[in-house]
Inverse folding.
């Protein structure tokens, strides 16, 4: 397993996490087997806004006191299970009742990331504060029950505003190539607004955990994929993990077989991880933008083209860490010999030869 650092909290988070939308769909015992296998394979990050309330029981069975310290939970203040199934609520009493019950079922006395749950409108954020839900979350944070505050949202401008105000250390956001290219129910915001959010999180050390990496399963279907062909789980996960700021991806699984497809990311070949097929549906305004996929590799000068471009884009939004990472690279944009290999192999029509000159000038080498 590979781990990425949340710079604000110091937590090392596995690049593969799990969502729990369907964890008990094949019964509690299968849910237990999934979590045990995920844990054995180094998964240490779990989202707890699932489809059914029994998910807390499943986690309580697997992560007893000693294992609990090895894993991180995202628990949502606004997801309620009074009727056994997921419901969304802005009722502070219902939320308190649910959080207390969930802690009991989980057999834990702390929450790694207490999440402001699923806010896509600023008017609802105002209600969230007015009704005392945010103050309850902050109160638990001050008591040490909630270690960090998080936010889940699908809407970039709303997420940016709440991040600003609420001291968020982790953002759960819906990222996949369909949403980034304006397709699907949660394709909120323009491509620029979405990219701005990812880069801002990277710059400020706010970790992103990714929900809906398969666009609700549509990307895995030949018939429903906007790219005219199904993507694989590995391609979708790799796409999300290449976005700035992303620490972990949280696919939902309901069987060991589905978990195995997710874990395959860890030993997949470069060819299996290549998602350049998405270039077929790149919207006009996005053509020519580097998506850091490295489909153009190998560069005869030894430049990691995707990484050089990522650090450059981050440096432009003021990310000092990106500047120092760039300086530590073995090869820089100034090493480009203008051979044209990347230009002819880039499916996103990036004029990388010109860009390398621009990057070299901006980054001083
Ligand atoms: S230049 Fe094109 S192929 Fe190379 S990393 Fe960027 S988007 Fe991918
Ligand atoms: S043009 Fe420059 S960056 Fe692109 S492959 Fe050739 S040497 Fe590498």
């Amino acid at each position: 397993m590979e781990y990425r650092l949340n710079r604000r909290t110091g937590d090392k988070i596995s690049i593969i996490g799990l969502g729990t939308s369907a964890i008990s769909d094949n019964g509690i015992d299968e849910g237990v087997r999934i979590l045990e296998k995920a844990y054995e394979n180094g998964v240490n990050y779990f989202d707890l806004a699932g489809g059914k309330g029994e998910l807390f029981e499943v986690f309580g069975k697997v992560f007893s006191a000693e294992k609990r310290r090895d894993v991180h939970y995202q628990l949502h203040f606004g997801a309620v299970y009074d009727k056994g199934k997921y419901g969304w609520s802005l009722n502070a009493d219902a939320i308190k009742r649910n959080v207390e019950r969930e802690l009991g079922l989980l057999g834990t006395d702390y929450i790694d990331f207490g999440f402001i749950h699923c806010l896509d409108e600023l008017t609802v954020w105002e209600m969230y504060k007015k009704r005392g839900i945010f103050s309850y979350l902050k109160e638990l944070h001050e008591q040490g029950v909630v270690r960090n505050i998080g936010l889940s949202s699908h809407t970039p401008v709303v997420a940016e505003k709440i991040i600003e105000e609420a001291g968020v250390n982790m953002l759960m956001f819906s990222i996949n190539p369909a949403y980034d290219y304006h397709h699907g129910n949660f394709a909120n915001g323009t491509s620029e607004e979405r990219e701005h959010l990812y880069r801002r999180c990277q710059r400020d050390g706010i970790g992103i955990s990714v929900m809906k990496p398969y666009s609700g399963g549509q990307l895995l279907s030949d018939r429903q994929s906007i790219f005219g062909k199904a993507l694989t789980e590995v391609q979708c996960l790799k796409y999300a993990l290449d976005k700035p700021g992303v620490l972990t991806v949280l696919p939902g699984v309901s069987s060991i077989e589905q978990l195995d497809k997710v874990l395959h990311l860890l030993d997949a070949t470069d060819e299996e991880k290549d998602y350049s097929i998405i270039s077929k549906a790149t919207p006009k305004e996005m053509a020519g933008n580097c998506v850091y996929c490295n489909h153009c590799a190998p560069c005869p000068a030894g430049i990691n083209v995707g990484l050089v471009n990522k650090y450059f884009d981050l440096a432009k939004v003021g990310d000092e860490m990106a500047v120092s990472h760039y300086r530590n690279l073995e090869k820089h944009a100034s090493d480009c010999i203008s051979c044209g290999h990347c230009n002819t192999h880039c499916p996103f029509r990036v004029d990388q030869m010109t860009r390398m000159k621009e990057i070299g000038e901006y980054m001083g080498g």
In short: The CA atoms of residues 229 and 314 lie 32 Å apart. The chain has a mean pLDDT of 93. The pocket of iron/sulfur cluster (ligand 2) is lined by residues 299-301, 303, 305, 336-342, 352-353, 356 (CB under 6 Å). The longest helix spans residues 92-106.
